Amino acid sequence: MSSTSVAERPASPRRTPIALYQPQPEVDLLRTRRLGRLLRWRWGRLAFQLPLLGLAALLVYDGLTGPQLASQNLATVITWVHYRGLVVLALLLVGNLFCMGCPFTLPRTLARRLSGRGRRWPKALRNKWLAIALLVLSLWAYEWLDLWASPVLTAWFIVAYFVAAFVLEALFAESPFCKYVCPLGTFNFVSSTVAPYQIVARDHDVCRTCAGKECVNGSAQALGCGTELFVPAMRSNLDCTLCLDCVRACPYDNVALARRPRLHEVYQDSYPRRWDVAFLFLVFAFAGVGNAFGMVPPVYALAAWLSSVLGTGNEALLLAIILGAIMVAMPVGLGLAAAWLSRRLVAGRGRGEPLRAVMARYAPAVLPLAFAVWFAHYTFHFLTGALTAVPVLQSFLLDHGIAWLGREPNWSLAALLPTDWITPLNIGVVVVGLMASLSALSRRGSRPAQMPWMVLFVLVALAAVVIFTLPMEMRGLQG
Amino acid sequence: MRLSPLPSPAATRRRSLLTLLILVLVLSSATACQRGSAQPEAADQAPDVAMTFAVSPDPPAVGWSTAVVTLADAHGQPIEAARVRLRGDMNHPGMQPVLAEAADAGGGQYAAQLGWTMAGDWFVIVTAELPDGRQAVRRFDLRVRTP
Ligand code: SF4
Ligand code: SF4
Ligand SMILES: [Cu+2]
Cα(A108) to centroid of ligand 1, in Å? Predict the structure, then answer.
């Protein structure tokens, strides 16, 4: 064993120039007394995954066998009201806790232990294009199948997740599912860019002299990072599942889950300058608006109009056109236009800059606003309906002859807050998101070049505010 | 610590597929034995009874509506002295249902006030306990508009 011990080194921030972009691990969740010990424990992740696995099994069971009424089935209530609300709350308060406890990776871990060295994920797919496509596709399928209204489809959706994670893991050497495929992971990765905690190296000098780089390579005893992140070089939460495999793999106990200023990575230039990453952020923002738009009256009017113009009642097609326009055409078209204008508006040398670089500089500033839109929508459902879990659970138990929670479900339980507070709250969230995005924008490039982006962000925020003030009708497109 | 030698990839893949197969079988058998309450209409014991449901205003808007349920037997004779309960749910999860017990208005008619909390798709399950001891259960779908 090496004699390098973190504790023996005097702390000196000046020694670590490489760490300028990584927040200092002053507050480290892994060093808190009880929680820290649990997280670093070899089976620590399992302690979070097993309860969630049990929950997933319960949801699948109720979805397949219980009442086929969305509001009375645990599968639909817990998945679409609680899961989504709690995920965005966790992202805001801590980080990507869902991926940390993700039950879908459990059978996957099994497959991985069995499969040893499989193929590598194809090179052509080692980027975010597939993840973008699958994110949009899953949001389209959600609307088309009215997943939120169907317990049995929601149950099969959960099952499909387990199967997909398992199959991909059995076939490939690394963990391509989380990084390149899973739409929930994509959502969590992008959202966790605004989270207040991040994996960092405690002492970069230790990493510099570390021979094995076990955090990414793994060792005989521990798996390395499944999404192939290298701890001392991490500038962002993007692609980090918080599995903490790196923590368990590092022979020097040199990994921290550090608190950081909330917008640390968005303020810095933390992302690879790639088209796919920039478009992922923009698509994520517009998809948040599009997903909320799917629940308000104008979408029905739009669909009816489109249907008469095209002479087709095919809902899948109508939805593909509407969502494709909002979630793909708009972010791509408006993003390119903003980047092109940005470049026109700078004087001199900047004009020769590749569009990709301009795009990569400004697009990440949209992240806080994008997250705010999703957060507002998902907390809307959570705040209006969190307590419906109580009567639904009561009636589930009563169906099985268990009266622990009383003999009569209390159907009057629903909202967590008075419902007329929720819309102002949502609008407040979007406004805060817009401010944060404008502030991130003001730290990039030159003032004139920021202008087109400022206009774009204000328009996105305005669209979100208008949608949140409309009544959420919550019905299927062609109902 | 040494790990035991890894099985061959082919063996692994076989095992994976086997596990998958078992999983799918278990799940589909679960689908086959749905619980009694799966569809509310399944609790209907009186298919011969004719039940109608009307709301005014029609279409209903957010706020209060009057719902009238009529019950008639196989010969078209009104059924009186039934106990009629209504439950309205949105098709989106996480919304509070509206519950009401209808008052006997005579002549096989039963009236209740329903307070719609939100615009959108609702369905109303009407459960009537008939004088002969049977239970009639029907489902009615409707769309509530923004006022
Ligand atoms: S294993 Fe990774 S985190 Fe640990 S010292 Fe080596 S490079 Fe740093
Ligand atoms: S850096 Fe990699 S190994 Fe570490 S917590 Fe994140 S995903 Fe897991
Ligand atoms: Cu919604």
Answer: 25
Name the residue range of residue A58's domain.
13-267
Asked if residue A423 and residue A334 are part of one domain, the reply reads yes
Coil, strand or helix at A20: helix
A225 and A280 inside one domain: no
Q: Is B39 on the interface with A (CB under 8 A)?
A: yes
pLDDT in tens, A96-120: 999 999 998 886 667 666 655 667 8
Confirm if B112 and B100 have CB atoms less than 8 A apart: yes
Q: Residues A135, A187: contact at Cβ < 8 Å? A: yes
**Does residue A257 sit in the same domain as residue A393?**
no
> Quick check: pTM over 0.95?
no
| DSSP of A403-453 | -TT-SS--TT---SS-HHHHHHHHHHHHHHHHHHHHHHHTTSS-HHHHHHH
**CA–CA separation, A180 and A70 (whole Å):** 31
Q: How many CA atoms lie within 13 A of A183 on its CB side?
A: 18
3-class secondary-structure state, position B10:
helix
Q: Give the position, in ligand 1's atom list, of the atom nearest the Cα of A214.
A: 1
Per residue in A179-195, pLDDT (tens digit) is: 899 999 999 999 999 99
Count CA atoms closer than 13 A to B146's CA, side-chain side.
9
What are the pLDDT digits (tens) for A304-330? Answer: 999 999 998 899 999 999 999 999 999
**Both tokens of residue B28?**
């589909």
Which residue's structure tokens are 């000196």?
A12
Q: Name the domain count of chain A.
A: 2
Least CA distance to B93: which residue of chain A?
Answer: A71
In the structure, ligand 3 is a single-atom ion and the residues with CB under 5 Å from it are A 295
What ipTM does this complex have?
Answer: 0.74
Alpha-carbon distance A378 to A226, whole Å? 29
